[in-house]
C-alpha cells in the first residue's frame, strides 16, 4: 500500500490552488526581486517555449501602463477577440493578474499548471542561476496558461518593474508600448530619469513598432535612439499622433484622435483625469498600428464601445458615496501631480481629507509637494506589507515641507490602516472629499475592506 506522501507526490506537490499560490507568493519575502532573464530563458526552454505561440502587446511605463492595458483589452474584446491580460500588482486576489476576457485563471487550472512547473523550478533552483523568483514563476504561469490552455488571440502584457531585465521581456511582441518615464523604482532602475528610460526602452525589439507618450525631450531621446538602433518605427504623442480634448466632466471625457493613418472624431472615456485622455490616445494609436499592419479588425463602433466600457479599479475610483471616498494608487511625484490636477479640476469639495501609506523606497518629498497644498487633513498610515514606509518618518518629512511651504495642515499618524480609515471616514462630512492614496498595497486593502469587508491577498 502506498503511503500518503507517495499518493501526494503522484497527484502533484500541491493539493489546492491556495497551496500553490502560497508557495509562489511566499518566495517574495524569501527571494525578493532578482532582475535578469537567465532563469526565465531556462524556464521557457524546459516548458517547451509556449511564449512563441502568441501575439503579445508589451506595455511598460512608470505611470499609466495599467490603464493603457485596460483600454487595449476592453477594445479588443469589444471587437470580438479573446484577450489575455497579465498585470501587476493585483488588488484583490492573486488570480486577478492572469485573465482572459476579464475572467481570472481558474483555480483548478492554476493548480495543474503550478504542479507541472514545480519540478522544473526545483531543477533550475539547483543550478548556478539560482531559484526562480515569485514574479518569474507568475510570468511563466501566465505564459503556460495562455499558450497551453486558453489560446487568446492577443495578450496584453504589462511589465512588472522596468523592462530590460524584467521577466516579461522574455517575449517577442507584435507591438511595444512605453507610456511614460518618471521617478519610480530608482533604487533598482537607476538614479536618473535617463537611466530609467533606458531600462524601459529595453523592451523594444528589432523591427517591432513602438508607441509612446514619453516626455520631455531628453527622456524621449533615449526611447528614440533605442528605436532607431533596433529599426523599430516610433509613434510619439505630440508628433506622429495627438489628441484634441472636446469635453471633460466627471465620469465623462471626449476627444478627437489624430494619427498618421486617419483622424477619429468623437471618442469618449469614463475614466477621470486629463492623464486618461493621454492613456486612451496611446491605446488608440496602438490599435491603429495593429489595424494597419496586422489586419486586426477594429470597427469605429467597437472602438468607441471598448473605450467607454473601460474600467480600472484603484485609480481615481470612488468607492463610497457616504462619505465620498476616492482611492488612487499615486505613489510617486508624477502620479501625485496627476492626482493633484484631478482633485483641482474634476472634483468639488469643501474640505479635503487624505490618507496615505507608502513603501520605504519611494520619493516621498516629491509626492508630498504636490499633495500638501490641497489637503486640510493628512492621515499617515502604514501598508500591511513587509516593505512599508515608517509613518513617523513620513510625518517628519511632511512637517518639514509644511514649514518650508508656509502651509497649515492637520497631520495625524495612525500606523494601523483600518484605524486610519475610521479616522478618515469620521472626519469627512457631507460636502467633503476623502482620498486614500499611496502604495497599491494599501489601496488594495482599503478597496477590499470598503467594497467586500474582507482583507485582500494583494501583492506583486
From TrEMBL:
<comment type="similarity">
    <text>Belongs to the folylpolyglutamate synthase family.</text>
</comment>
<protein>
    <recommendedName>
        <fullName>tetrahydrofolate synthase</fullName>
        <ecNumber>6.3.2.17</ecNumber>
    </recommendedName>
</protein>
<feature type="domain" description="Mur ligase C-terminal">
    <location>
        <begin position="314"/>
        <end position="439"/>
    </location>
</feature>
<dbReference type="InterPro" id="IPR004101">
    <property type="entry name" value="Mur_ligase_C"/>
</dbReference>
<dbReference type="Pfam" id="PF08245">
    <property type="entry name" value="Mur_ligase_M"/>
</dbReference>
<dbReference type="InterPro" id="IPR018109">
    <property type="entry name" value="Folylpolyglutamate_synth_CS"/>
</dbReference>
<dbReference type="InterPro" id="IPR036615">
    <property type="entry name" value="Mur_ligase_C_dom_sf"/>
</dbReference>
<keyword id="KW-0479">Metal-binding</keyword>
<keyword id="KW-0460">Magnesium</keyword>
<dbReference type="InterPro" id="IPR001645">
    <property type="entry name" value="Folylpolyglutamate_synth"/>
</dbReference>
<keyword id="KW-0547">Nucleotide-binding</keyword>
<keyword id="KW-0436">Ligase</keyword>
<dbReference type="InterPro" id="IPR036565">
    <property type="entry name" value="Mur-like_cat_sf"/>
</dbReference>
<feature type="domain" description="Mur ligase central">
    <location>
        <begin position="59"/>
        <end position="286"/>
    </location>
</feature>
<keyword id="KW-0067">ATP-binding</keyword>
<dbReference type="InterPro" id="IPR013221">
    <property type="entry name" value="Mur_ligase_cen"/>
</dbReference>
<dbReference type="Pfam" id="PF02875">
    <property type="entry name" value="Mur_ligase_C"/>
</dbReference>
Amino acid at each position: 500500500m502506498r503511503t500518503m506522501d507517495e499518493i501526494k507526490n503522484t497527484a502533484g506537490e500541491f493539493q489546492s490552488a491556495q497551496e500553490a499560490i502560497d508557495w509562489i507568493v511566499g518566495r517574495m519575502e524569501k527571494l525578493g526581486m532578482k532582475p535578469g532573464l537567465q532563469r526565465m530563458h531556462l524556464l521557457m526552454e524546459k516548458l517547451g517555449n509556449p511564449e512563441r505561440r502568441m501575439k503579445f502587446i508589451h506595455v511598460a511605463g512608470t505611470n499609466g501602463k495599467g490603464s493603457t492595458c485596460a483600454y487595449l483589452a476592453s477594445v479588443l474584446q469589444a471587437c470580438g477577440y479573446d484577450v489575455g491580460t497579465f498585470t501587476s500588482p493585483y488588488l484583490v486576489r492573486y488570480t486577478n493578474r492572469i485573465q482572459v476576457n476579464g475572467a481570472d485563471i481558474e483555480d483548478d487550472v492554476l493548480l495543474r499548471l503550478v504542479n507541472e512547473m514545480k519540478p522544473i523550478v526545483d531543477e533550475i533552483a539547483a543550478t548556478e542561476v539560482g531559484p526562480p523568483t515569485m514574479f518569474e514563476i507568475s510570468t511563466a504561469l501566465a505564459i503556460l496558461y495562455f499558450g497551453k490552455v486558453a489560446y487568446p488571440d492577443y495578450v496584453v502584457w504589462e511589465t512588472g518593474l522596468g523592462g530590460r531585465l524584467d521577466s516579461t521581456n522574455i517575449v517577442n511582441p507584435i507591438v511595444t508600448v512605453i507610456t511614460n518615464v518618471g521617478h519610480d523604482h530608482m533604487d533598482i532602475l537607476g538614479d536618473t530619469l535617463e537611466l530609467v528610460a533606458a531600462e524601459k526602452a529595453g523592451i523594444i525589439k528589432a523591427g517591432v513598432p513602438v508607441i509612446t507618450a514619453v516626455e520631455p525631450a531628453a527622456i524621449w531621446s533615449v526611447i528614440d535612439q533605442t528605436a532607431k538602433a533596433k529599426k523599430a518605427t516610433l509613434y510619439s504623442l505630440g508628433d506622429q499622433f495627438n489628441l484634441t480634448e472636446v469635453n471633460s466632466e466627471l465620469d465623462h471625457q471626449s476627444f478627437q484622435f489624430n494619427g498618421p493613418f486617419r483622424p477619429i472624431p468623437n471618442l469618449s472615456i469614463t475614466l477621470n483625469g486629463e492623464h486618461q485622455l493621454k492613456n486612451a490616445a496611446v491605446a488608440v494609436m496602438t490599435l491603429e498600428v495593429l489595424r494597419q499592419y496586422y489586419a486586426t479588425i477594429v470597427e469605429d463602433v467597437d472602438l468607441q464601445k471598448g473605450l467607454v466600457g473601460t474600467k480600472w479599479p484603484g485609480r481615481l475610483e470612488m468607492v463610497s458615496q457616504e462619505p465620498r471616498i476616492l482611492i488612487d494608487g499615486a505613489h510617486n511625484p508624477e502620479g501625485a501631480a496627476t492626482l493633484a490636477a484631478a482633485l483641482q479640476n474634476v472634483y468639488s469639495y469643501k474640505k479635503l481629507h487624505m490618507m496615505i501609506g507608502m513603501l520605504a523606497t519611494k520619493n516621498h518629498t516629491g509626492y508630498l509637494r504636490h499633495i500638501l497644498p490641497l489637503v486640510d487633513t493628512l492621515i499617515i498610515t502604514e501598508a500591511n506589507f513587509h516593505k512599508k514606509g515608517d509613518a513617523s518618518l513620513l510625518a517628519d518629512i511632511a512637517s518639514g515641507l509644511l514649514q518650508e511651504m508656509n502651509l497649515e495642515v492637520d497631520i495625524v499618524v495612525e500606523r494601523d490602516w483600518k484605524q486610519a480609515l475610521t479616522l478618515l471616514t469620521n472626519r469627512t462630512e457631507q460636502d467633503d472629499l476623502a482620498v486614500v492614496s499611496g502604495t497599491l498595497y494599501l489601496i488594495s486593502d482599503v478597496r477590499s475592506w470598503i467594497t467586500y469587508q474582507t482583507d485582500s491577498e494583494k501583492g506583486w
